[in-house]
Write a structure and sequence with these properties.
The protein is of the alpha+beta class. Helices cover 26% and strands 30% of the residues. The strands form 3 sheets. Strands 6, 7, 10, 11, 12, 13, 14, 15, 16 and 17 form a 10-stranded antiparallel sheet that branches. Strands 4-5-1-3-2-19-20-18-21 form a 9-stranded antiparallel sheet, covered by helices on one side. Strands 8-9 form a two-stranded antiparallel ribbon. The chain is globular.
């Protein structure tokens, strides 16, 4: 019976691929990867209307620890420019970066995988908190996140043979619900910090049976009980949108011996190295990368943002290498990427980088896999940035969503109008801090996707300084955060109307993700 289901699934995937190719006879996807220092307004400047070269069809943005990534795709038109010649023998050289605004930019082309099923009627979405009370990232955090990413990707690939749709770290934890003596009449909801040391993930269930869900849930629950993590599952009951969570296991704050500090260093990390892996989306690619990193005990993962855009997998990781400063990393990396013989494939490039840093693989660690699903992936590395503790505890999360018809301005129109609205509703953040909310708000996470209806839908989480809420504390039943979001949504719609851009709709603003529009994306 299982083989019969797999056979039917393969036929369906083949039919979908044929439809996609017939609908859009393009076998290449152009993309850009921007690694830059996380600062206010970087994304707005990058996708501004004056930057014609950076108009993206689909976009992923993430920022943490002082470093940010912006990834954008543009579907190749048959007559646009010259084709980038790719070598199929596995010896494609690593891409040399362009320096731009304090960061590095990589522009390349890859082949999509039209049989990859991103959308699924059934999804398994979870959230695992490692150390939600931490205000800075230590070396042991990087090892814990790295091991957790490997466990999540291994469960998707080996346990249920399903695609891993998304990864995000740090992530916002569920809303805190407080009552007095368990009296529901005194129920009060409080927004959790904008981001915490937690990993959020989503798996597309090809087998939508209850057995598959229980197998996944039991595996993650046992893992959390072992290491002292908290675990939530997305609430799939009717009427509960994305962003509602059901608590499965609540940790008591005691970590396993592996992560208590007696075996692992509690020293704060010193630098972060952004690395982005790009290639045709397929099952097991993220697991192959995480398993390779686990062979190096001194290499941790302190942030991640992974998803699929235009049937292409983008796996972005922030690496922290114990005892290696940013300047040394950049010197070695600059020399490595300047050589014409440096390979672009993930395992080969990273193995050479770690070798030059004097990091041998652990002989007792997991060995290389027989098959490498990332054997044709490209790797974009650097530059390294000095670690900067995130100020999320001092910020409030503001979730926004929108829909826009496909046009040449792309993300520029809704984002620019949003920042103008922020500056209008909060022209001053606080007497002690010069600048408006539009100047100081940071895009902590953003995702845009194109649909078959010729529209692009987006969702973002902004980190806005908490001091803004003082301007909306005028008493009454409504919370200051709700007043802020209502004012921002009204001003955002007004600025969109004044901009004269057609096709922008479904604008929503909320301090809870589940209060966004009728659709959402991970």
């Amino acid at each position: 019976m299982r083989n019969q289901r797999i056979s039917v699934r393969n036929v369906a995937d083949l039919a979908r691929a044929g439809f996609e190719i017939a609908r859009q006879p393009v076998t290449k996807v152009d993309f850009e990867v921007h690694h830059a220092m996380a600062r206010h307004g970087y994304l707005r400047e990058l996708v501004s209307a004056d930057s014609e070269s950076s108009v993206f069809l689909e976009t992923l943005c993430s920022a943490t620890n002082g470093a940010g990534v912006v990834i954008g795709t543009r579907t190749r038109k048959p007559l646009d420019g010259t084709e980038v010649v790719e070598r199929v023998d596995g010896h494609q050289p690593a891409e040399r970066p362009e320096q731009n605004a304090g960061g590095w930019v990589f522009r390349q082309t890859t082949s999509p995988n039209p049989t990859f099923i991103y959308e699924s009627a059934q999804r398994f979405e979870g959230l695992i908190a490692i150390d939600p009370g931490a205000h800075e990232v230590c070396e042991w955090h990087g090892l814990a996140i790295r091991d957790l990413v490997r466990e999540i990707s291994d469960a998707a690939a080996s346990l249920v043979d399903a695609p891993l749709l998304s990864l995000q770290c740090p992530a916002q934890l569920p809303t805190l619900v407080k009552t007095r003596n368990h009296d529901l009449r005194t129920r009060k909801e409080v927004a959790s910090p904008c981001a915490s040391l937690a990993v959020r993930f989503a798996i597309a269930l090809r087998d939508a049976s209850a057995t598959a869900r229980f197998e996944l849930a039991d595996r993650f629950r046992e893992l959390c009980e072992k290491h002292g993590y908290s675990f939530w599952l997305a609430d799939t009951r009717p009427g509960h949108r994305q962003g509602n969570w059901f608590e499965v296991y609540h940790a008591d704050g005691e970590f396993s011996p592996l992560y208590k500090g007696d075996l692992r260093s509690r020293q704060r990390i010193g630098a972060v190295l952004p690395v982005t892996f790009v290639g045709p989306a397929r099952i097991g690619s993220t697991h192959a990368i995480a398993a390779f990193l686990q062979r190096y005990p001194q290499v941790g993962v302190v942030g991640c943002a992974a998803t699929t855009l235009s049937d292409v997998a983008f796996v972005h990781l922030q690496l922290a290498i114990h005892g290696v400063a940013a300047d040394r990393l950049n010197r070695i990396l600059g020399k490595l990427l300047g050589e014409s013989t440096t390979p672009a494939r993930p395992h080969k490039l990273l193995r050479e980088l770690f070798k030059r840093l004097g990091l041998p693989p652990d002989p007792d660690g997991p060995g290389p896999a027989a098959q490498d699903p990332t054997g044709d992936y490209q790797t974009f590395t650097g530059p390294a940035f000095a670690y900067r503790p995130y100020q999320m505890p001092d910020c409030v999360a503001v979730w926004v969503s929108w829909e826009i018809a496909r046009q040449h301005r792309g993300l520029a129109a809704p984002l620019d109008c949003l920042y103008r609205a922020l500056a209008q509703v909060a022209p001053t953040v606080s007497p002690d801090t010069p600048g408006s909310a539009g100047d100081l708000a940071t895009v902590e996470y953003l995702i845009c996707r194109a649909t078959e209806q010729s529209v692009v839908r987006g969702k973002a989480k902004l980190a806005v300084p908490k001091s803004v809420l003082r301007q909306f504390s005028s008493g009454g039943v409504e919370l200051p955060a709700s007043k802020l979001c209502a004012s921002l949504e009204e001003a955002w719609k007004a600025h969109v109307d004044q901009s004269g851009v057609d096709g922008v709709s479904e604008l929503t603003v909320a301090w809870r993700e589940s209060w966004l529009g009728h659709w959402t994306y991970s």
